[in-house]
Amino acid sequence: MNKPDKGTTTKVTAMTLLGMKGRERVSMVTAYDATFARLAEEAGVDALLVGDSLGMVIQGHENTLSVTLEDMIYHTKAVRRGSARAHVVGDMPFMSYQPSPEVALTNAGRLVKEGGAEAVKLEGGVEYEDAIGRIVRAGIPVMGHVGLTPQSVHAMGGFKVQGRSPEAARRVLDDAKAVEAAGAYAIVLEGVPVELSRVITAHLSIPTIGIGAGAACDGQVLVMYDLLGMSGAFRPRFVKAYADLGREVVDALGAYAREVKDGSFPADEHTFHAKVALFGPRGSDSDATSNSALDRDRDRDRDRQEHRGGRGHHDDDDPTPLYGVPV
Questions:
Q1: Active-site residue among 114, 118, 190, 195?
Q2: pTM, whole model, 2 decimals?
């Protein structure tokens, strides 16, 4: 995998996003690995959210509740390795901040120190104002998240739009104000009516980033797999698929499997050839000698390559590596 060029771009930070309020819309997508992080960077996306949604789209669970802090650290590290310019936000998973502000600070610190997150995101409003404040005072930027909060899926009775009644809308607005007052630099509004997101966006001095919240927000975020058309038949109403990569992947894998079965892959252009004869006549005594010598040469080349810290070996006059990414 090509590493990102860390010397040719201006880094997007929490303060960059804060300064975009009212001036430029924020584009954010989820990312869970270095490859998609690199591709999102090449596309010019502002921010990468390492979301606990990985519990559903990567791990195959029905919700996000089983995701651990260790999961988040692992995937955040991978995304950081694939990104240079984009702002990287790590999600705080279920029960990593709920017990107390002290627990929240400890775990936010791990996500930054061990995972390389440049900010953390946590769900909830008024009830977690103290936790947000404690993390912010320690110097860790916090992105809030109100409205439909997936970690409260059981309390909400499912993934349902929030804030549709005046009373419910007031609660979401109060949550958003509490998040800002606690020191958050941005806030995700998920699954709320556009009329409510418009009011919240107007009331707050920090950028609002919507998902299923309409076009009135200061920015948008989508799950990478959803916008690329890789999530199967189910597609939430708020998702726009910008590609149909799921079908393309199935077609490509099908073509590969067929060519393996019928023997047309690998073809000659995918095959390495020796430059000299390697063995004597079939069945001759020289076979054993040649095989033994070949084994010794192979072991010697491998030892030399491992000593140099490389992954595959090169012919002396051929700069092309024999191997790409190993299985």
A1: 190
A2: 0.85
